[in-house]
Amino acid sequence: MMDLKSEDIIKLKEKATILRRHVIKMVYSAGSGHPGGSLSCIDILAVLYFHVMKHDPQKKDAERDRFFLSKGHAAPALYATLAESGYFPISKLDSLRKNDGYLQGHPDSSIPGVEVSSGSLGQGLSCANGVALANRLDDNPSRVFVVLGDGECDEGQVWEAAMLSAHYKLDNLVAIVDRNGLQIDGQTEKVMSLEPFSKKWRSFGWHVIQIDGNNIEEIIKAFDETENIIGKPTVIIAHTFKGKGVSFMEWINAFHGKAPTEEEMIRALEELK
Amino acid sequence: MDNLLSTREACGLTLLNMGHKEKDIVVLDADLSGSTNTKKFAEKFPNRFFNVGCAEQNLIGTAAGLAIGGKIAFAGTFAMFLMRGWEQIRNTVAHDNLNVKLLGSHSGLTNSKDGGSHQCLEDIALMSCLPNMSILNPVDAIEAEKIVINEVYRKGPSYIRMNRLTTPAINTQDYDFEFGKAVEIREGEDLTIIATGTMVSEAVKASEMLKKENINARVLNVHTIKPIDKSSIIKCAKETGHIITIEEHNIYGGLGSAVAGIIVENYPVPMKIMGVNDRFGESGDYNYLINKFGLNEVEIIKNAKKLFGDKK
Fold first, then answer.
1. Taking the alpha carbons of B291, B161, B185, B228 in that order, is the dihedral positive or negative?
2. How many domains does chain B have?
3. B68 close contact with A: CB closer than 8 A
4. Which residue among the candidates B9, B22, B43, B56 is catalytic per the annotation?
5. Domain range for residue B279?
6. A126, B61: Cβ pair inside 8 Å?
7. B33 partner at 20 to 30 Å CA-CA among A271, B48, B74, B91?
């Protein structure tokens, strides 16, 4: 990984702010959606798409790095990232959740750049494993990245898949868990305890990195580290804030699945500059 | 293909044979590779075989990922346990129209001794309501081979329903399989027995016995339950005026339901749906269960006579 100049980091931070603004506008315009979990993982998406991943929106190259959004309810974050990357026009973002709209409420593989449809939780890591296995068979050096939610890790399939990644020593795969601590019904530790979370992953045979998942420098450093891990998959447990970037949404569970009012939207955009 | 094999054995052998030709074939199993017969492929091509352990949801998801990565992914386990991954089949495999071929072995009552938990009488219903999904139910080893070869080259998801036990040979090696096209295997103009899989041989037996009573029963083998051969079914209704369907499946949501929908909408004629009468299976000898549940030529003949009433 090349050394990053401070101006590159500033650019990534600016990009994350632009993506956040898109998310707020999209979810407001749609009148429903999931702003909280979109804002928590958006710094990770910014670093992946604008720094880490090899990908070209103009061509579906077999050797592209692949991204899977297993926590499909963060679709606004993914769509904003794909549009800013050039997969489709930014003007399309306004179609989210609308009649005959270009952008479905949850990721749909008909949308350029979306590798697999998601929304029903717990399935992305299995798919990512499959692609990582296919890449290995083809001597394809590309890497596979998958973002999961922490609440999503209640799903048994996540752990079936976690066993498989380690069993097949998928070091061409990186999972990132958006550990924002909240799920629909409340705090993850009250709904269904995940802790000791890192120990769980470690005991499943994964290399575990823990970071502040809203800190661009730490995210970059974590992805740098993943490149040196041989013979096992890596999980980045990204400690984030749900609603990050908008003061009145941060750590507020009501914004898991609620659109901002017009007044809230204006206030949010004021903060995101 | 040795036609005295079960459809699962034929499928396993075909995968092995096709594995030499097509390098993009991968096979997955969920800890039942010996039973499903995917083990043959596994032993020859260990790098292209993935055992996921007894974890069916992950079986489907991993197969989906391999298909996204450009592979032709065959995923096998008992039919019953594949249904555990129904939601994964719906939301990923079917929704995204992925090149995943689901191999459901030990379908119907053929896993007879293991009992109701392992028998599968609901799979056709569960697969039928999924957009993009095709359902194939081979009648014998030869048809199983041709179906698997066809599925290697036909893009898109499918469910291939296989049985544990040897089924009587219906086809010969020169049989020409056509996806989506039902096969008339006995002629007749009084009645059509529309059957699938294991029940085709019962239909043939019934047809032969009915002939002695001056009832000429046509037999139609529906190997492709979805997309179903609508025009052949309408033709049978028009030409024979009476329809019996029979399948080793619940009477709800299977072949009978599909045929009834076509008949009612296009050319209503008297019809009887035969299958397992909305109950679960139980342990026992296969033949004992088949007879207990009324899935035999004797019951077909009774139903044929009922359809005719006093007319014949």
1. positive
2. 2
3. yes
4. B56
5. 183-308
6. yes
7. B91
